[in-house]
Task: structure prediction
Amino acid sequence: MTLPHPTADQISLPNVLAVLGDPTRLAIVRYLASKEGVPLNCSRFLDLCSKTNLSYHLAKLREAGVTRTEAVGTSRLITLRRDDLDRRFPGLLDSVIAAAGDDASLPAVGGHEIEVRA
Amino acid sequence: MTLPHPTADQISLPNVLAVLGDPTRLAIVRYLASKEGVPLNCSRFLDLCSKTNLSYHLAKLREAGVTRTEAVGTSRLITLRRDDLDRRFPGLLDSVIAAAGDDASLPAVGGHEIEVRA
DNA sequence: TCCTTAGTTCAAAGGTCATTGAACAATTGG
DNA sequence: CCAATTGTTCAATGACCTTTGAACTAAGGA
Result:
């Protein structure tokens, strides 16, 4: 079961830019890019805002075509739609992610990696 | 006399993306890029919206650090801050402009070039 | 079956954004 | 000086955005 996503050619440039213009969402995208290939579930991002608000931001990203959300059990697995974005807007995602890379003003997604006990 | 502009390092990525996320402003930037090096005055963009509204959008672009506005007589000369943007966010402007290049959904800045009479 | 976990939906509040017309300021040409 | 040109400022409007808590759904484990 998959939630509604735009097709690649329905992705709108102004909309993508507007959606990435929010610091919370930009932080989500930056983190997704840093773990690229690994589908992450929503709870990874709970540092950024409340659960309700996160649901809202992730829906915005999905509806803009920036992320893909797959429902698996009670979880949602989030991935970047890099292929579609690169095909549609070559170089855009990379330059945004690079620019966001050293932006201390963006909120950070804390370490929720599985801790290795000493 | 110059209007208030952010310095290069005051330019914020989320803010730039948000400002470019508006179709009217993206169309302005695309047109500025197509005439790069040539300072254009506001009236060039009157196809896009009312004079009042244009003033608002151009102020947004200036305050975000995307454009530079110089007052000359009663005119304002608008240029892209390409150097600052490229230094701050390498490749971003180019990929945005390239992506906007073939976007038919963006409003067009009509031909206000000086007509050569037949 | 019952409880927990994961996330969504809803309504409401408060904020910001885009757009408008009217009024204003400043420069320039006659 | 007078008038036209160029663009800004202001107040108002409606729309959309972000955030919140409460209530909800759906899946999984004990």
